[in-house]
Amino acid sequence: MNLPFDPLYIIAVAVACGALIQGTTGMGFALIVAPVMGLLAPESLPISLLILMLPLNAAVAWRERDAIDFRGSSWITLGRFAGTFGGVWILLWLPLSQLNLLIGLSTIAACLATWMAPSFVPGRRALISTGVITGITETATGVGGPPLALVYQHSPVATLRGSVALCFLVGEVISLVVLAVGGHLHAEQVSPVLALCVPLALGVIASHWARNLINETRLRRFVLIFAFVSGSLLLMQ
Q: Which of 14, 115, 141, 233 could connect to 36 by a Cys-Cys bridge, CB 3.0–4.6 Å?
């Protein structure tokens, strides 16, 4: 896609907005940033996205540490470890164009599932299954939040934010290590991260203030609509 300006500026805005929204609601960063990167800098996925989410989720997990569901997070992490290898397999066999198709489809499916899921209390099997699905999708595409948001969507907001952030943090380390060992970690995917650290930090700082002021139901609705549109654009491309 040829643009009359540096696409990094658009990605930076998406990163700041994604960090603000995830820091406020517990979800949304990958849903917003992954489709934008897929359109403007597909070669940076999923490595750049995974690296950016490390400091984001570390900050949110520390802020909400008193509300974290450590038992549920442990079961999710167990499933996540197994699912990571499925994500590597997808990266190994899918060309970039089909990876964009996968990102678009998985984003749209995750939006619909998150929107329509009924209220439930997750058990051990649901937590492990969530970890497996998250491991596959986040390792392959950088998008792994919707299954975690689904499993915690009826928990207190602080529990959702903290538990999802902790699961992300541990899982992203696992994914990056496995991707590096498999030879999928390249310098051109890491270098954009440095330029995006400032907008990421601004979004995280703003979320400390915004989480007490913003109507989370309306913001969650905005995240899902934005992600649905972004995923649709990837499919159209």
A: 14
**What would the DSSP string read from start to end of 156-208?**
-HHHHHHHHHHHHHHHHHHHHHHHHHTT---HHHHHHHHHHHHHHHHHHHHHH
Asked if residue 51 is part of any domain, the answer here is yes
Q: What pLDDT does 228 receive? A: 76
The answer to whether position 219 is within a domain reads: yes
- 22 versus 94: the higher-pLDDT residue is 22
Asked whether 106 and 200 are in contact (CB, 8 A), the reply is: no
Domain that holds residue 119: 7-236
Residue type, 205: I
Overall pTM > 0.90: no
Cα(8)–Cα(59) distance, integer angstroms? 24
Determine the Cα–Cα distance for residues 1 and 213; give it in Å rounded to an integer. Answer: 38
Amino acid present at 58: A
- pLDDT of amino acid 42: 83
Q: Please tell me the distance from the alpha carbon of residue 193 to that of residue 227, in angstroms, as a whole number.
A: 22
Nearest one of 32, 53, 49 to 170, comparing CA atoms = 53
Nearest-angstrom CA–CA distance, 135 and 57: 16
Answer whether residue 1 is part of any domain: no
Q: The tokens of 214 are what?
A: 């913003």
Residue 214: Cβ-neighbour burial (10 angstroms; 0-12, 13-18, 19+): middle
Nearest alpha-carbon partner for 25 in 167, 158, 171, 127: 158
Which 3 state secondary structure label does DSSP give 135? helix
For the chain, how many structural domains are there in total? 1
